[in-house]
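REVIEWER CHECKLIST
Item 1: Sequence provided? yes
Item 2: Single chain? yes
Item 3: Sequence as submitted:
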Amino acid sequence: MKKRVIVTRYISNEGDSRIPFSLFRSIFKDLLRQIKHDDEGSVASSREGSTKGRINFERPVDFEIDEEWDNLSLQSNSTMSSVMSTDATRFRFICEELNAPPEFAEVVGKRLLGLKSTAAPSTASKPPDLDKIVNFIADAFIRCTKHADLVLLALDDVHWMDEMSWKVVQAIFERSENVLTFCGSRPPSTNHLAVDEKFWSELHGAYKEEGRYMEINLGLFSEIDAQEMIAYHLDISVDKIDGSFLRNVFTSSGGMPHYLSYVLETIKRNDLTVELDNGLIGLKSSESAESKLGFKSVNDLLLYRLDALDSSVRTTLHLAAVLGTEFDLLDAALTYEE
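Item 4: Structure as written out by the authors:
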């Protein structure tokens, strides 16, 4: 039987530490779209028979995307309106199922998701406190993904994640049954994590003993590690690798595993190896006396790989680079013509 797996990924940046719920601002809309289609049928039944909820489904959906996004988007207004209508309907459905008070539509729907209500804001109710928002987002995450056999929540650079996002991650960890969370960060000893101290202590105590938490410390490769990785990628024995080849590759990658894999993929793709006079495997000679690889750093390697792409692919990359940044359609057209 085929298993249903949902993968949710996010990389925090330095500015996220100052933005409450920065993680879920980015992934919440995607989560709404994970609601299984048969759930949408229950939306209709809720409209007909359910009156106990605090969100009234009899009213038309009154959320629409911000006008600023319409100006940036290359999609048609009709397509975007349709997509947002679906997102808003599902959001209201989640509010109904979780029995959320009306002010959540204002706080989470408008301020967190960027959905703008056409209805006049309510002045009678006060904004919900942060703990209630944390609980709502965690419950919504679990509800949207409950049909999956496995949900992978992969978070990188969490040393930049804000405190409220950490609280939601904690709540998901404590309540969910099908979520596997991966967190990557710089060493916590030198990079403070905004995680709750009690929760952090429980992770290293009871949860670790129960097998629910594992911590892996990853460091730079040594030359011996790099040698073994070269042998694996190029399908040669370790004793067939020339010493200068090893030092060149190791220096170019800085010993970082991910960058080392980039270097080796480039070497293999471009057939840059050759059997030397001594019978060992080394690099082919190049015009650069400083580096037989043709690049001296990972940045040079990335530029090297981009330059090797077909011109039409590079043009597409140029267009993609400006998406999400304000520009005129004429600018995009002129870029494509060039």
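Item 5: Key structural point noted by reviewer: The beta strands are 5-11, 63-65, 115-117, 150-156, 179-184, 273-275, 281-283.
Item 6: Recommendation: ____
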